[in-house]
Specification:
The complex is a heterodimer. By secondary structure, chain A is α/β, with parallel strands linked by helices. Chain A is built from eight helices and nine strands. In chain A, strand 1 and strand 2 form a beta hairpin. Chain A is globular and about 50 Å long. By secondary structure, chain B is of the alpha/beta class. In chain B, the strands form two sheets. In chain B, strands 6-7-8-3-9-10 form a six-stranded mixed sheet, with helices on both faces. Chain B is globular, with a radius of gyration of 19 Å. The relative contact order of chain B is 0.17. Classes of the chains: A alpha/beta, B alpha/beta.
Amino acid sequence: MKETVLKIENFSKSFEMHDQSKLIPSSSNVNLSVVAGKLTALVGPTGAGKSTVLKSIYRTYLPSSGRLLYTTRTSNTIDLALADDHQILGLRENEIGFVTQFLRALPRQSSENIVAAPLIRKGVDKSLAIEAARKMLQNLDLPERLWQLSPATFSGGEKQRVNLARGFVCEPRLLLLDEPTASLDEETAERVITQINALKNRGTAILAIFHSPQLIKRLGDITVELRSPVDPDTLVQRRH
Amino acid sequence: MTKVLEVRNLSKVYGPSCMECYESTGPEFSTNICPACGSIVAAHNISFDLCKGEILGIMGESGSGKSTAVKTLFFDQEPTHGSARFYDSNQQYDLFSLNPAQKRNLRNHRFGMVYQNPGLGLNFNVSAGGNIAERLLMNDLRHYQQIRDRACELLSRTEVAIARVDEQPGNFSGGMQQRVQIAKALAINPPLLFLDEVTTGLDLSVQAAILDLILEIQQEFETAMIVVTHDLGVIRLLAGRTLVMKNGRVVEAGLTDQVIEDPQHAYTQQLVASAL
């Protein structure tokens, strides 16, 4: 029953900066598993490459090495590092959700439309999608008077609620969360925790970055600690 | 995903062209002019797929070959090499081996093009409504009232005041001309739409209105589009995937967020770092 949705083996990512002829390591030698209905918590100091792991799974970053084996709803295994762009677009639409640290959405769109958009793209009827979006915004306690407005003028916490609602509403098979409660007050954070637990109960596999040890204890089923990658330049210096 | 267009090894050379043209031009040489024969290699080895409802961005500086690539696909120019296959509902067309009548047929019935310069896409000697009617007539809509109704519907869709349907586009502002051009391109609900620098030179509020319109059209009709622009903001907003061109070559191709956040090629890194 508890199937592995994502298995990462020896993943590394470094950035090659051409103008400075530099190779900047970001994540190195990461191994982890994400299981259906469970939450894997990624922990480690700033700069350990936690967000890099999430962005590489979503392919906003191109992995440098290693395997990211994802098992689809139809039990196909795809190495996300090698999948072609259309395959990734299909997975983003139907299976993998990502709530980043900051909301990025089409400008000039109402909050409820932003939240409903992934459902509509999946083919859900527009009025049903808006209904689901409103329900999720209510669950996350975004005041109803804001639903019709664009989040451009919202506070950080309000934007984050729109961001989370959009990630939660389509119940992805794999959900990536980058510090989902960072800008929220305690009460809203509790509501987010309730939603995360609800998704887990319905079988979503979650990979999340949290900073609060309390949250990790409450939500995390598996904890993976990342260490800062060693910069090859400093290695050379140490030797001297 | 349903494939709409498959382009392979598309090349376009202006001039006599010689054996060295391809080997001595490109980003490594920072030029698209062949040092041996002076030919201009406007585009070389362009390959990509485009699926239904997808917007592909082609980004690059002036002279990088991005418009040339699109113009060959719309039959404005003849390619030097390469192939392009258009997948229609239950037919396929090998675009570059069609005869002129077949090409005209696809241009009139299945493709839409919006040029940076409205003068290329619109006939300034007839009214805005007439421009749209021209395209409807080609598609066997013959009844006057039907044509007029459809023209008005399209103009209101693109937010051009219907009261001005009988005016010539020359009387309109640049942004309005662009919207009439889009209305004309859309008149037949083409499954494939080419947009060449459609918002360049327009003021910001008009740009926003046109970009929103393009997204609405994509969602409503699942139109496949190729958007050519040098504007990173337009790419970020519209395109799911992006090709980056320099000196006639594709230097990078990928998901738009990846191209912007994790650019691989030196030129793309420079381009992204230069964004305002």
